[in-house]
Amino acid sequence: MTGKRSCLWRSLTGLTHKKRPRADATRPLAGTNIQKFQRVAYNKKNKLTVIIEIQELTLEHTRRGVTQEWLFRNMIRPTYRISKRTYYSYLSCNAKRELNKMEVL
């Protein structure tokens, strides 16, 4: 049904067509200054800065008593689009040392 017939059918049956709200990619996440879908690492330096951001975010929230599992599910995965295995490998990496090595060279 299209046009006037579908509007009449919806009004008679009480059914309405409601679209789901779209996620806004520019809206910041609650309680942080991180933008959703912030950036993707295109070279090693950018990757290391992203790793440092994730490590600092994790330290900040775990000091408040939040578990790493909750933090990954609610903040890291929606923002950075990485897997749990990648998240834990980022936490074990000494990114600041690697970045300093790159800047010295």
Summarize the structure.
The protein has 105 residues and is an all-alpha fold. It has helices at 4-13, 44-63, 68-80, 84-92, 95-104. The longest helix has 20 residues, at 44-63.
Low-confidence stretches: 24-29, 33-37
Beta strand count = 0
Taken from the alpha-carbon principal axes, the silhouette is elongated
Radius of gyration: 22 Å
Intertermini distance: 68 Å
H/E element string?
A: HHHHH
Number of domains: 1
Q: Specify the structural class.
A: mainly alpha
How helical, in percent, are the residues? 55-70%
Biggest sheet character: none
What portion of residues belong to β-strands? under 5%
Quickly count the helices: 5
- Average of pLDDT: 77
Descriptors for this entry?
single chain; 105 residues; mainly alpha; 0% strand
Sequence-ordered SSE layout with sheet pairings:
Elements: H1 4-13, H2 44-63, H3 68-80, H4 84-92, H5 95-104
Helix pairs in contact: 2-5
Structure, described:
The chain is mainly α. The protein has one domain. Helix content is 59%, strand content 0%. Helix 2 (44-63) runs antiparallel to helix 5. The model is unreliable at 24-29 and 33-37 (pLDDT under 50).
